[in-house]
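Below is how a single chain appears once it has passed through the pipeline. First comes the sequence as given, then the structure the pipeline wrote out for it. We keep one example in the README because the format questions we get most often are answered faster by looking than by reading.
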Amino acid sequence: MIFKIKPTLFCAIGGILLLLFSINALAKSATVHITVKNYRGSIWVYGPELRYDLTKTNTVELKRSTDQSASYTVRTDKPTCLILLFESDRHFNFSLFLSPGDELFITADFAKKNNNIVVTGNGSNNNQPEIFALTNMDIQPFKEDTTPYRVISTLNRQFLLNKAMLAHYIKVHQPSASFIKTEMANLRYFVPMQYYVSSHNNVNGKPIEQQKKWQKIQDSLFSTVKLSNDAALSAYNYTQFIDHIMRIEQSALVDEFRTQPVLFYKQWFHCDTARGKQLFKSAQMGILTQKVVDKYFTGRAAEYAYRQALKREFQQADYPSTILLFDHFKKRYPASARAKGFAVPIAEVVNKQRQALNSKTFFVRANGTNLNTFNEVLALNKGKTVFIDMWGTWCGTCREEIKQHAAQLRAHFKGKNVVFLYIANLDAGREKEWKKQINYFQIEGEHILANPKLTEDIMGKVKSTGYPTYIIVKKDGNFKQTATRYPVNILAMIKEIEAARS
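Resulting structure:
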């Protein structure tokens, strides 16, 4: 028997399928629409997708239409956090809790009390303005405190206020179960996260007795929460906690490496200094990342920490560390969807490392390792205008600036008799890594691998302590550190060099 189906039935079935497809598509995204009045600043988004795209920064500016409206869509299949950053004469942010299928409409009038924020739409029960206070607190007023008692007292008071606000919010707005779970985690990690950052800022470089007071409270707070907690990854305070631990503990290891190398190699590599130097010769920040992650985190929390580290090292142009971390990430998390997204830009990095050394790259005789004074460096290009970049292969901000501006700066002064001299500092014994980075970034110009005496003499004469440091030498031999510092305004730097040539 043959059945005939009417065309109208085909249309009906097609309509149902289209509706189901649309619902499914919506279920994998959430959209925020925002309209502001009486606001002259910029609005930026810090979203989950941006965190894992190696080629993009962590924030993107919302482009507002003539009626001051903008929209942003997050592609997600689970609850996530989206941060709106408002930057004008004062800075503040709104943390939004988004679930698949949400569509929020936010209006704000900055000429009215509390900015008259109104949130409507699907998911608005999870994002009413009262909730924004739960993740916002300024700890800057405590930065000069020598004891921890004022900051911990203030944080504990705010915790109790947050707890009461959350209970009231749940009663009034009846948010989703996933929201309640996330906000309870935000509440739980609020004091440990904020105190940890404040403690680090206040005890860094201070006497041991002062540090002990802060450490005692920190240890007590850390005992109340899980440092590795997969269930809390949707909470902004917890992911910030992970980010701060990674940053602060890595910094502490770098300090230990520089000031107590014997202890550093014994504790972290279980070997003597000679063997440790061989193991820690390249991809140093990548190795330190592994040490910190393996000490504090497991499971999805560790996966999150590795993803964040990969993004950071890629953005800072630390490509040896990026490749090391990616190889480790693939082996440890072979099923991770993020591995595929990372693969393309990292493959480009690997290919770029194989390129030939630029013919316009010159190394001073013996790499300049026998030069001990700034006067000896000045004699190399006597009577010429020289732009000196004091950098280091280990310096993230140095690599960032070279990646972003070095070629553009050289191109502007092509044929204008300006010598570009790049002096690598604190890189003694790392000649291979030094030349690898010069090759990778195709840094045209003259190069010196400074010994400690030369670094000390130059930095002392220009009265600088940080990297990168930029110096302009005039034809008459006079020199000065540039007024343009990190982060570099390329037009301002060009103007300074042009002035030195005249």
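The two ends are 96 Å apart (CA to CA).

See the next section for the split statistics.
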